[in-house]
């Protein structure tokens, strides 16, 4: 069976996005870019909620993305992608499929088919998958910043998610990558 991973970055006080979907506080140094480029080449199917998908689709296919982060842009654009949304009518970013209903059942089916899956951003999708017991690993980049307000990564989760730390890595920027598996 394939694994489902969550990759996200958060603030010291646990927010994965600030007001108005702001993620400008995340540090994008050279080491973080190398890590992102490696991840973009993993072959994992990328899973998004609508808001994250629209943000990613508006950036990664652009010439600015190719200029600033060429390896990540190539990986993001060629990756197979699924966007979960009840309101979108179509998904136009290359290699993207739209799923409107039964997202937990869809992820169960995809895991059984043997293709690794990675949720990027998309806190509500991450929460739903965690509550369904489908998450196999989490990679969380903690930025050395605290926001006055924002949205917690697992906002609204109704049960505990006990985790075991499997590795950590400190970047020169002060960002710390923490990798976990559920206990």
Can you characterise this structure?
- The protein is globular and about 40 Å long.
- The model has no long low-confidence stretch (mean pLDDT 92).
- Strands 5-4-3-6-1-7-10-9 form an eight-stranded mixed sheet. Strands 2-8 form a two-stranded antiparallel ribbon.
- The chain has six helices and ten strands; from the N terminus they run ββαβαααββαβαββββ.
- It has one domain (4-182): Dihydrofolate Reductase, subunit A (3-Layer(aba) Sandwich).
- The protein is an alpha/beta fold and 183 residues long.
What is this structure, in a nutshell?
This protein is an alpha/beta fold. The chain has a single domain, classed as Dihydrofolate Reductase, subunit A, CATH 3.40.430.10. It is built from six helices and ten strands, in the order ββαβαααββαβαββββ.
Question: What order do the helices and strands come in, and which of them pair?
Answer:
Elements: E1 4-10, E2 15-17, H1 30-40, E3 45-49, H2 50-59, H3 63-68, H4 70-78, E4 81-84, E5 96-99, H5 103-112, E6 117-120, H6 123-131, E7 137-142, E8 151-152, E9 163-170, E10 176-182
Helix pairs in contact: 1-4
What are the main properties of this structure?
183 residues, alpha/beta, Dihydrofolate Reductase, subunit A, two-stranded antiparallel sheet
């Amino acid at each position: 069976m394939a694994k489902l991973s969550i990759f996200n970055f958060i603030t010291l006080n646990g927010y994965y996005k600030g007001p108005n979907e702001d993620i400008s506080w995340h540090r994008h140094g050279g080491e973080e870019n190398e890590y992102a480029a490696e991840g973009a080449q993993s072959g994992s199917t990328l899973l998004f909620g609508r808001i994250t998908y629209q943000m990613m689709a508006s950036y990664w296919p652009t010439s600015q993305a190719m200029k600033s982060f060429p390896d990540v842009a190539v990986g993001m654009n060629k990756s197979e992608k699924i966007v979960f949304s009840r309101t979108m009518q179509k998904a136009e970013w290359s290699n993207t499929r739209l799923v409107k209903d039964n997202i937990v059942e869809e992820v169960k089916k995809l895991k059984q088919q043997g293709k690794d899956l990675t949720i990027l951003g998309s806190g509500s999708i991450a929460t739903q998958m965690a509550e369904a017991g489908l998450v196999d690993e989490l990679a969380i980049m903690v930025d050395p910043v605290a926001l006055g307000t924002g949205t917690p990564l697992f906002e609204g989760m109704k049960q505990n998610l006990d985790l075991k730390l499997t590795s950590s890595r400190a970047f020169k920027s002060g960002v710390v990558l923490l990798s976990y598996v559920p206990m």
